[in-house]
Every structure is written in C-alpha cells, then in structure tokens.
Amino acid sequence: MAGWEAAPAKVNLYLHVTGRRADGYHLLDSLVAFAGAGDRLRLEPAGALSLALEGSEGATLAAEPDNLVLRAARLLAEAAGIPASGRLRLEKNLPVASGIGGGSADAAAALRLLDRAWGLGTAPEALAALAARLGADVPVCLECRATRMQGVGEILSAAPAMPECGILLANPRLPLPTPAVFRARRGDFTPPAVLPSGWADAAAMARSLAACRNDLEEAAISLCPPVAEVLAALAALPGCLLARMSGSGATCFALFPDAGSAESAAAILPEAWWRWGGGFTNPPLPAYSALAGGA
Ligand SMILES: C[C@](O)(CO)[C@H](O)COP(=O)(O)OP(=O)(O)OC[C@H]1O[C@@H](n2ccc(N)nc2=O)[C@H](O)[C@@H]1O
Ligand SMILES: Nc1ncnc2c1ncn2[C@@H]1O[C@H](COP(=O)(O)OP(=O)(O)OP(=O)(O)O)[C@@H](O)[C@H]1O
Q1: PANTHER family this protein is in (predicted)?
Q2: Whose CA is nearest to atom 21 of ligand 1?
Q3: Distance 102 CA to ligand 2 centre (A)
Q4: What is the average per-residue pLDDT within 257-271?
Q5: What is the dotted CATH code of the domain comprising 166-281?
Q6: Domain 166-281 in the same topology as domain 5-153
Q7: Is 30 touching ligand 1 by the criterion CB < 6 Å?
Q8: Which of ligand 1's atoms lies nearest the C-alpha of 178?
C-alpha cells in the first residue's frame, strides 16, 4: 500500500488578471511555485471509500461529502469504471480558504495517489482533464513543481529555471473565499509578464518579480484589511527580498536568499498568525506531467 502523498502549498509568485471569459471566469497569468509546507494524504485498505481528517487544521474542515479529496476519488473511479474504495487519511496542515490552494493540492494528491494505488496508469492529459473539472488550481497542483499557469488554470508551461530561495508564508487566520475576491476586483487587465529563461539567484528573481503584481491584492485587502498588516510585517523582516499576497489571499509570502533565513524570520511574526518558513519543493518532471514538452 502507498505511503504518504505530499500535497504542497501553492504560491502564486505573481498573479496577473489578463482578461475575462464569457462565462465570468478570469483569464490569468501566474508563476506558481510549491513550498515545503503542505498537507499529506494516505490510503489504507478498506471496503467503501471514506475520509478521515487529522492534522493541526483538520478540525476546521469537516469530512463533508463534498470534500475535494472525495470528489477527486469519485471522479477518478468513475472515469476508470471501477468502484471507489479505501480509507483515505488527510493530514490537514494548511489553513483552509487561504490562497495557497490547500483543497486543490489535496485533490491533486488524491488523483496521483489513487491512480497509482488503484493501478490505473491514466494518461497524463486525461488526468489533467479530470483535475480541471475539480477546480482551476488543480491542474497546476497535479504538476506539483514550479510552473507557469495561464488561461483559467488549464494552460501550463515550464517555469524559468528557479534559483535556491527561501519562502515564508503567513496568514492572519481569517478565511477569504476565492469567488468573493474575484467579484470585488476593480480596474483594468494586466498584460502577461515577460520572464527570462532563469534567474541566477533569489535576489535576481525577486527583482524580476517586483515588476509583476498580484492583481487580487487590493480586492483582498478591501474584504480583509489585516492582509495589509501581514504584507507590511513581511516587508519589514530582515533579509526579505519581496513580500506579496498569494492567490486570492489571505496568505502572504516573503522571499529570502535561503530556506534557513526564511525559517528564522517566521519565528519573529505574531504567534496568532499561521506561519511557515523554509524552501521550495521542485522535483524533476514526474511521469504524470502534462506540461508542454514534459516527460
Ligand atoms: C486565484 C487562484 O488561486 C490562482 O491560483 C485560482 O485561480 C483559483 O483557483 P480555485 O480556488 O481552484 O478556483 P475554483 O474553485 O475553480 O473557482 C472558484 C471561483 O473563483 C472564480 N474564479 C476562479 C478561477 C478563475 N480563473 N477565475 C475566476 O473567476 C470563480 O468565481 C469561481 O467560481
Ligand atoms: N480538502 C480540502 N481542503 C481545503 N478546503 C476544502 C477541501 N475540500 C473542500 N474544501 C472547500 O474548498 C474551499 C476552498 O479551500 P482552499 O483551502 O483550497 O482555498 P484556497 O487556499 O483559497 O484555494 P485557492 O488558492 O486555490 O483559491 C474551502 O472553503 C472548503 O470548504
């Protein structure tokens, strides 16, 4: 039986809203990276499909029937024409509805884990199509490595070569629903970013990202003013190279030259906040990658 499957936190290093589709969904351009922080998912042998929640944030999310992990399991089983089975255990460490894609990362981890455990060998493109039906962020979370994301989340391409870099995540422990933030967004669209093929070091990457923005930051602050306090606190940390909000918030991130300095800086932040400091995870292209030119 498979061990723990990692569901790392998604970080939008920049997020440009480039347009809007006729159905109301927003067109995006984003560089998405994955932090060492995350949830974990495990499957144990059992008859009918079930989900048990544990971990520091587990109590904030009831094991409701529409949990994204269960929806992913049922969707995969249905596509394969098999009954969904097994006892899933979700260790929930990421705050819920916080802009770091916890639910999306869990759903993607469920697709990867169950595709293996059930011996399905689903084609990468087919798995990515199932992921897109579960949420805009699920395809990029399926990749689980630094990736450029466009369209409404379904167009994925290789990210610039990422340097060694530390990342700190901080959340004021206030949930912020994604649809409300998109609804509150005002202003023009932003063109896609122009990115180099790679960065020599974290400082060069931060300089380049500083020319980009998170187009949802203003809307998130209007709905949740403490986001501005978190951003100010991060920007003031010694060694901080860049402070910005991730996704639709309220989690904000700061970049540091290395994982050690991000970890030390996290300890300075208010204890009432959820905070994590460390490095990025950037594994080699996995077998299930649907990235253009991928494995
Ligand atoms: C903001 C991001 O986190 C950036 O990575 C994602 O685009 C959101 O991804 P997600 O949470 O998986 O979003 P979904 O669950 O698919 O959508 C939630 C709601 O957000 C809005 N939404 C989402 C994605 C998108 N490209 N445009 C939108 O307008 C829609 O109102 C949608 O009903
Ligand atoms: N396994 C799960 N983990 C977290 N949320 C879940 C899960 N399953 C269902 N949900 C629901 O999905 C909603 C969004 O949760 P999530 O934590 O993914 O938001 P988010 O971090 O803002 O995501 P994103 O950055 O992709 O917008 C929650 O309000 C919750 O009710």
Answers
A1: 4-DIPHOSPHOCYTIDYL-2-C-METHYL-D-ERYTHRITOL KINASE, CHLOROPLASTIC
A2: 179
A3: 6
A4: 97
A5: 3.30.70.890
A6: no
A7: yes
A8: 20
With cut-offs at 50, 70 and 90, classify the pLDDT of residue 290.
Answer: confident
Query: 153-172 pLDDT, tens per residue?
Result: 999 999 999 999 999 999 99
The response to whether residue 137 sits with its C-beta less than 6 Å from ligand 1 reads yes
Closest residue by Cα to atom 24, ligand 2, is 101
202 in Cβ contact with 241 (< 8 Å): yes
Per-residue pLDDT, averaged over 138-164, amounts to: 96
Would the pLDDT of 295 be above 60?
no
Q: What is the pTM of this model?
A: 0.95
Query: Ligand 2: distance of its center to the CA of 267 in Å?
Result: 26
**Residues involved in catalysis:** 10, 137
Nearest atom in ligand 2 to the alpha carbon of residue 104 is 18
Q: What percent of the chain has pLDDT over 90?
A: 89
Using the mean position of ligand 1's atoms as its centre, give its distance from the Cα of residue 168 in Å: 23
What ipTM was reported for this prediction? 0.94
Ligand 1 pocket check for 122: Cβ under 6 Å: no
Instruction: Give the distance (Å) from ligand 1 centre to CA of residue 247.
Output: 9
- The structural domains of the chain, with segments of one domain joined by +, span 5-153, 166-281
CATH 3.30.559.10 fits 5-153, yes or no: no
What confidence tens digit (pLDDT) does each residue in 33-82 have? Answer: 999 999 999 999 989 999 999 999 988 887 667 899 999 999 999 999 99
